[in-house]
Microcompartment protein EutL (Halobacillus faecis), 217 residues
Amino acid sequence: MKLEPIYAEVLSTRVIPNVDPQLSEKLNLSTSQNSLGLFTVTMDDVGVTALDEATKKAAVDVVYARSFYAGADHASGPLSGEFLGIVAGPDPDEVKSAMEAIHQVIDGGAYFEALNEEKTHSLFAHVVSSTGSFLSKEAGIPEGQALAYVIAPPLEATYGLDAALKASDVELACFYGPPTETNFGGGLLAGSQSSCMAAADAFRQAVWEIANQPKRT
């Protein structure tokens, strides 16, 4: 089984070298967080993965990460996409390094996979070999641990999670109960890298089977 990748697209980016104190207060920034990097992207889970990678490549923290309701097809404007991410750092150089890492992940490091030719049915089964500060906090695990980040439409996600948990020695560290803001579901599965890979494969296989035989009991 080989599924075709669906790559996300960065729609807009900006760096704020010196953030205004009023905005800083609303974002709960520390006194050392002077600069911001902002981006929108067409796929929220790819954006989350990119943010986590940024925390490993630069001295930044994720200060905002929100998906938009109903997904990119119902965005508020042509540059909104499905997700807004913001990182904060001590200076523009660190933020720019973080933005480079974000672009690298979105441009090909993480992607959804198509379950049909029209690419209207898809899943996300990505293994993070070593988590940064963002996903570690989300999952409640130490930094540097492996995660399987698995997402699919509601029924597929629920069934696929069960299959993944039974197929490998992983812990359901975070459950995204459907429907999420973008009407998907899934979770973060923690374990060794090999266990996470096995879990992601089992999730992918289970979701693929539903796509091919949706009404089988």
Q: What stands out?
A: The CA atoms of residues 16 and 85 lie 13 Å apart.
